[in-house]
Amino acid sequence: MDETKARSITYAAVALILALGLIISFAIATNGFVKVKGTENSITVTGSAKKQIKSDLIVWDGTFSTNSPSMSDAYKQLTASREKVKNYLKNQGVNNSEIVYSSINTNIINQLLPNGSYSNTIDHYQLTQTVSIRSKDVEKITELSRQATDLINEGVELQSMPPQYFYTKIADLKVEMLAQATKDARTRAEQICDAAGSNVGGLRNAKMGVIQITPLYSTETSDSGVNDTSSLDKEITAVISCQFEIK
Fold first, then answer.
1. What is residue 149's DSSP assignment?
2. Domain residues for 152?
3. Same domain, 155 and 67
4. Do 36 and 46 reside in the same domain of the chain?
């Protein structure tokens, strides 16, 4: 075999080896890409659920006060006012077990001088006390909170606070709402995958959002959650982010 022919065979062998190497490398690269792609075959969607609820617990506070130059007289007046408050609540059908009275708060008010500053001489004593009602009878205490200022006609200096409304079964309801939000997330994922010709597999992970408890028809939201206590009727919203496998 002459030198030229031998050289041609060598070149051909080298070319064949390089071609096989490229084919093998391409196959490895392709298989590797498929595996990586397979681990990312998932879809992340957000689901939500809403439900209207009615508060089943009310908390109402009323503050009454007295003023007198004499500490003892101020205390006697406050005691008389407290008795009037007790009788009023009893006549309204409020149970004693639902009523709590705070400790008495005493403020010393000094005389105001013509220049607008206060002297060291005591002008009068101001005594205040708060009555708090915590009840399941939401409608009755709501009405009472509106009418309690009638005590003013009996000489009681009463300030009625806006009632606070709560839902006591919120812990159980949160679990129910998150389950509904997860179902909603899966439905959304299925709709998206159906359009793309894919199927939704199992749930890989889920991240719960904050619970929003707002007045009805409110658009208020907060990153830390909203817990409205000003409204009798509320709306609870649960949000969850779910990652599903795509088959």
1. G
2. 58-165
3. yes
4. no
Interval 164-183: pLDDT, tens: 999 999 999 999 999 999 99
- Give dist(CA 70, CA 81) in Å, integer: 16
- Mark whether 154 and 90 lie in a shared domain: yes
pTM comes to 0.75
How many whole angstroms separate alpha carbon 245 and alpha carbon 225? 29
The pair of three-digit structure tokens given for residue 80, joined into one six-digit string: 């008389």
For the chain, the C-alpha Rg in angstroms (whole number) is: 37
86-95, 112-121, 157-166, 224-233: which range is least confident on average? 112-121
Asked if 29 and 70 sit in the same domain, the reply is no
The beta-carbon contacts of 71-77 under 8 Å, at least 24 apart in sequence, are 71/106, 71/125, 74/124, 74/125, 74/126, 74/127, 75/104, 75/127, 77/127
Exposed, middle or buried by CB within 10 Å (0-12, 13-18, 19+), for 156? buried
Give the pLDDT score at 116. Answer: 84
The residue ranking higher by pLDDT, 26 or 182, is: 182
